[in-house]
Fold:
Amino acid sequence: MKGAFLLRPDSRRGEWTVEGPYLRGHAVYAMALDGRAGRQRLWATAMNSHFGTVLASSDDLGKSWAIPEEPSVAFPEGAELSLKQIWQIAVGPDDQPDVMYCGVEPAALFKSTDAGESWAPVQGLLDHPHRKQWMPGGGGLCLHTIVQDPSNTDRMLIAVSAGGAYRTEDGGKSWRARNKGVRAEFMPDKHPEFGQCVHKVVNHRSKPERLFLQNHWGLYRSDDWGDSWQDIANGVPSDFGFAMAMHPHDPDTVYIVPIEADVFRVVPEAKLRVYRTRDAGASWHPLANGLPQESAYENVLRDCMAVDRADPAGVYFGTRSGKVFASGDEGESWQLVADTLPPVVCVKTAMIAS
Amino acid sequence: MVTVGLPSYLQQFADGKDRVEVDSGGSLRNVLSELGKLHPGVETRVLTEQGEVRPHINVFVGERNCRFEKGLETDVPDGAEVMILTAVSGG
Structure:
């Protein structure tokens, strides 16, 4: 909430050093590293509650930042919308090395075709007839999730709180609500066409059509790019939660952090537990070795869990109370690597050649 | 000539200056527009992309908060002082 911190491990991911804060005083809700086309460019959103939000970039991993005089992500004149927050920065496909996306509040998708220099809203979604009926969730009316298809760059699924999931098959020109089977506890009709408060959706590069979804009440899987969703809350203490992360190498393995309830947003029984499925949601099991199991009134927000690409994979998450935990063994054991940070609203990983 | 006083955050977008002289009077909108020609990073942080004063920013003409006058149409007489201030919001 107060800047960007970089945590670097030693070669065994045992000892960690904390650098920063960078973009001091700004809320950093989204980060991404663009390593395409010879770049090593770190992107971050910097929100000042008085002066607005800009997209900043750094080519030296945070030591210096390029902050545009005029915000590059901004609604056009006449749109009657003003940018509040950038919730997601997504690097585009490898074969389109200058394409990037941003998900913003008020809910809209922005696209850049010049590696983040200039941005424009994706008009097909901005003009969607459902848009006026979307309602803000607790964090605002935000487009926070961007799921790409590495095998088809015209296909993408996005999620809005609270509008639900939408998919395009034509590069963003048209979008269809993809929420069949996902419930909306807070609506009179529990299964509307749209209006669900989706919290996070993930997929795996090797099986992009299979999606996992953490909902505002509900844990789901789709095997058909969101055309239909099945309940997979099998063995979790609560199906409420925010964060969700896909294993980097195994498309059947997903991590979540269940939260007790919308009206009590802390981990169940005040025990901080990550839950993992290794069978695509048929069963979930707690991972608690090294995590506090008493009086841990913690919450983990939607973009606060990430994995690295090592083998075995590292898994990381940050809490509202400013703690960051790391696992170097796929979640079997955990270590506290930062304790007294400001509230954590975004955790991202990048592997960088040293 | 109108003098515009800047809060500390905005000074990084105005070559480090805490006051900027703008060669224009008329409406507050004109003053901010002239300021934007000198320092575009200041204007875009005071006004949204739709041209409205950001919700947690207060712009004073003399001792009058433009929000309670005519907004961006508030008259700024020659020699006046405009102050851009951050509202006390949040904890």
Chain A has a mean pLDDT of 96. The interface with chain B takes residues 48-52, 68-71, 74-77, 79-83 of chain A (CB under 8 Å). The first helix of chain A runs from residue 123 to 126. Helices of chain A lie at 123-126.
